[in-house]
Records
---
Amino acid sequence: MEPIISISGLTKSYANGFTALDNVDLEINKGEIFALLGPNGAGKTTLISITCGLVNATAGTVHVGGHDIFRDYRQARAMIGLVPQELTTDAFETVFDTVSFTRGLFGKPRSKAFIEELLKDLSLWDKRDNKIITLSGGMKRRVLIAKALSHEPDVLFLDEPTAGVDVELRKDMWRLVRQLRERGVTIILTTHYIEEAEEMADRIGVIRGGRIILVKEKTELMSTLGKKQLDLHLTEPMQVIPSALAAYHLTLSPDGTMLTLHFESRAERTGVTRFLQALAEQGIQYRDLETRQSTLEDIFVDLVRHQS
């Protein structure tokens, strides 16, 4: 499949010597939801800003729908919608007018019907005649989303779209994202709510220190790097883990009442049966046990920690 976004050797360095992006290669497929995760300062916003033509790169190339973002700026930018982190809106314009104006900036014909449908999708229709300065922060965020979608882009960038907003907007946002994906729109999002990426994304990319350290399909990532843990609630508190159990990956809760075994869920032999036998041999009894699968957040934290 031909990627709708192709990034090669992308580098961004500043005069003070700081390198925000370091030789980034990345391809994003048409119609997918791609989540870009990384700690603060990792380079997520810089990567988005360059791809959207807002920041100049030091080196490398970016193509959107086959158009070079630098040489064919207008054609490439017309394919992109961007919802930035910052709440930058035209304070004294009405909601309807500012969304309609943004559509016109991209050369799209007037369409009251389209703007009405868009505002209704984002629960903004009853605010259509309100000046933006009168809106709450959550409503202003909705307006940014509407502006980004006003020219019917093929690619939508969502840079922390639900940061600091209410639960209702988050639900509306992800409902709309699913609808857009069904229409073939490619969506690239960054988020601090990693559970959102786990629920929504088709593929996950992790960036740290300006470098892409991993790109995988979500299901493959969860399967390959995911771990399970077995929690045993002990009948009697334990002071220390017996040396006879040192071969196992165990942790003991601070109060000594829970012993946890960490194991690879995909391993041919998990070692759980042998471990339970070893517990019995040591005379260690438990009243209950439960297992837990790694979340995407667990995997992300582990990846970033080991790359630091």
Note: The chain has two domains: 3-222, 226-307.
---
Amino acid sequence: MDLEKSREEQAGEGCLVVALRMPVRVVALVLVVPVRMVWDTLVVAGRFLNGRVFRPVGRALAWVGRAVFVWPFVALWRWVLVPLGAALRWLGLVLVVVPAGWLYRRVLTPFGHALAWLGHRLLVVPSVWLYRWVLTPVGHALAWCGRGVFAVTSLLVAGIATALYWTARVLVVWPAAAVWRWVLAPVGRVLAVVAREVGAALGHAWRVAGYVSLAVGRALAALFRWTVVEPARWVYRTVLTPVGHAVRDAVLRPVANAARSVGRITRDALHSVRLTVRQVRQDVRRALLGGPGTAGKRDDQAVKGAVVSPGGRDERIPLSKR
């Protein structure tokens, strides 16, 4: 179907279009393939940078900006400027608005009414009389003269404009129309055909370059996988993992068990030493200071009832059960 449509379109087009199409498409393909590959590489790099670098950095900068700029100004506005503004507004109301209102109502309003009455008597009435009996007749006369002058001027301007119109039409419009119809329009149609074919060739080359870039990218990915990833995976699975298990079973586990045994023996020895030191200290104190009474007897009974286990733990057995 596509071949039939393309044949029908080629049959309906001119020879100029058919002659220009193939060379333009070949040149466009050669020029566009490297550009498309570079564009695809930049798109992949941009997506990676946007997801891994720019977005986290942007979120961190936004949080820092809010912490450094927004939150302090919000706190300053909420806890300092708003109360200060309320206090200044109350002071302005008390010190300025109320006195100004009283001055306007009690002083300026009566004074303004008096001035308005005196202005009306001294200015408005004489001005109305002057306008009605002097300026109105003079204005009517000047208007009649102006209408006559305007009529004469309009006739002169209309005649000059008509002459200029026909002169411009004969000397400019008709030659320009002839040049447009017989020169510029055919050249424009040819240039439009060339531009359309170049645009179609660039679009076709761009799509082909996309397929080429995709194929090259997949080939590079497969090459990287079979030369780097798969050998590394095989080495890790067949060499490093058995070696690691052997090292863990033969070296690390015995060393850890020995370390735990040494630590346990050391703790038991230290516990026995602490018990011995405590017993010696009690014997020395009892030998030097004497028995402390009932409390001393209870301590002796507790000491006699303590039996050190072979592991070094203090196991206390009541005297009745011994």
Note: The chain has one domain: 24-307.
